[in-house]
Predict the 3D structure of the following.
Amino acid sequence: MWPHFVNILGASWSRVTSELGTTTLSVVLFSLAAPVAAFIITMLVVRRSEGGFMEHVRKSAIPTLIGFFVPLVLIGCVFFWSTVRSIYEDHRDLVAQAKRLRDEPKPTCPSCPECLQKRCKGNTLIESKNSLRRRTLLLVKELNEFWSHKPTPVQQPVQNASTEEDRQRNAAWDQYWRDAKAAYLNADYRHRLVGIIREYKNKGIDTGYMEQAFDQPDRLVGAAPFGGWQLDNCMQYMTELCQLRELAYHVDANDQPIYLIANSKEQEAQ
């Protein structure tokens, strides 16, 4: 129970920092530590002034507490909303996965003529079309084709455009990304990517920071600014699509994790 609870809290906090466009360090430093540090510095400066040290403490304590707790309460509200949303999305993904498993055809023996000549064994299994690794590879293929049909404009935008030609170039560039983002959102890639990553994560497979990255509202996985869509050079340049495809090799046909463990006896013999 506790590992799942910690995972939900971690996903919720990652969603908070993503929605606020900040980091944990920024929240701690500028929202929580800054008022306390300002209070301490103020007390050190005015400790020898008229009125006494304790008088300055009484006058400065309330504003400092307000400056500390107001951001804390606001962040707490956002965190609570993110937690509820994470629980809802996990439940939705679980229901969708259960429906797929319930509706998919049961594994059967192969029906090819060569197979029919042999006796069908009870443990013969045909991999489901909805298996996790199949869905992962299909999504990678879909994103690869999506961006290959939407190549980035050759002409890059111009900073401080002064001519009509430069303004038209910048307008075409902005329109390209608006259209690409609209098509990306229409295909629901963000939710599909995060859902698949969470399936791997729930099985104990290390997914790194992919969930936080793919869940960012403005992130277009496979686009040129985020590594590109090429899959032919993953050994030298591990793009996000390469990382996603790599996960498919960590589960078997039954969606069970694959663990490769060296044989200690063979190592000792060598």
About this structure: Residues 2-103 form one domain. The two ends are 42 Å apart (CA to CA). The chain has two domains: 2-103, 132-250.
